[in-house]
Write a structure and sequence with these properties.
Number of strands: 18
Largest sheet: 18 strands, mixed
Order of helices and strands: EEHEEEHEEEEHEEHEEEHEEEE
Helix content: 10-25%
Radius of gyration: 18 Å
Structural class: alpha+beta
Strand content: 35-45%
Shape: globular
Distance between the termini: 9 Å
């Protein structure tokens, strides 16, 4: 019952600045309860388990657990697990492109300058009702008129995307955790004043967007750096012209991280990439 184990830092801009994911290799013999128990024990945003694929087109299968539940898809666990699979000797059937089988279906990961996943289709999209907008504002501790726009961008974790006036407004948020009532809220703001000015695409240094992710319903109050949310935000905000087709987003400052997420739209497909680095490697004993 011992398994190879890696802890991979994802989306960092230097040592220990991203979001760690725990990755257990060759986990086909583990039960659902053992996986969930280990995810609770690590208490990381996500813990993943690499298994043999069941789909002919996949290189490997991945199961993803938060401390509270299993997810069909998540971004930084996808990149971190792809990194761990490659580092352990995995070789994709198509050179340079890994195919991951997960609860959301098949997800392609490109291995170039940095690993980058293709954003899966949204499970829920569209405008947010006035009632839900009021709930979101209460949870974020702001007035509804401070919300520039909001959209459902659910790709598995259930995200609703919220756009604020600028990055400073995002950084200033002090959520009311008792008011979330099951909401998973991702908040974004541009690193420049005058959101509605025509020149809004000019970056602030190398970073255009500031992002925060609040998901207490998943057992995580604030997530350090969040690939699934960044994918949903990119699908929404690039399609509406609020963001260019290539940019860098920052996340994690409130948690003393320096996450950097690289977003590119290639032939209409959003790709979300970032740096990956193994910080811990060894074996883990998961006997009941």
């Amino acid at each position: 019952m011992t398994h190879s184990y890696r802890c991979v830092d994802v989306f960092g801009s230097g040592p220990l600045t991203g979001n760690p994911v725990a990755v257990v290799h060759d986990a086909d013999d583990l039960t659902d309860d053992q996986m969930a128990a280990f995810a609770r024990w690590t208490n990381l945003s996500e813990t993943t388990f690499l298994l043999r694929p069941t789909h002919a087109g996949a290189d490997y299968r991945l199961r993803i657990f938060t401390p509270g539940e299993e997810l069909p898809f998540a971004g930084h666990p996808t990149l971190g697990s792809a990194h761990a699979w490659l580092e352990a000797g995995g070789a994709p059937a198509t050179p340079g492109v890994l195919v991951q089988e997960c609860g959301a279906g098949l997800v392609r990961v490109h291995a170039g300058e940095r690993l980058a996943l293709e954003a899966p289709p949204l499970l829920r999209s569209g405008p947010v009702s006035e009632e839900d907008l009021a709930r979101i504002a209460r949870a974020l501790g702001i007035d509804t008129d401070e919300i520039v726009d909001a959209e459902w961008i659910d790709n598995g974790p259930g995200w609703v995307g919220v756009l604020l006036a600028d990055a400073a407004a995002v950084s200033a948020l002090r959520p009311d955790w008792s008011a979330f009532d099951g909401l998973d809220i991702g908040v974004a703001g541009l690193h420049r004043p005058g959101l509605h000015e025509p020149a809004l695409h000019e970056p602030w240094g190398d970073v255009l967007l500031e992002v925060r992710a609040f998901c207490p319903g998943l057992g995580i109050t604030e997530d350090p750096v969040t690939g699934s949310l960044q994918a949903g935000l990119a699908q929404w905000l690039t399609s509406t012209g609020r963001l260019p087709t290539s940019y860098v987003a920052a996340q994690g400052a409130a948690l003393q991280r320096r996450g950097r997420v690289h977003v590119d739209v290639v032939d209409g497909q959003v790709r979300v990439g970032g740096e990956t680095c193994t910080t811990i490697e060894g074996r883990v004993d998961l006997r009941a």
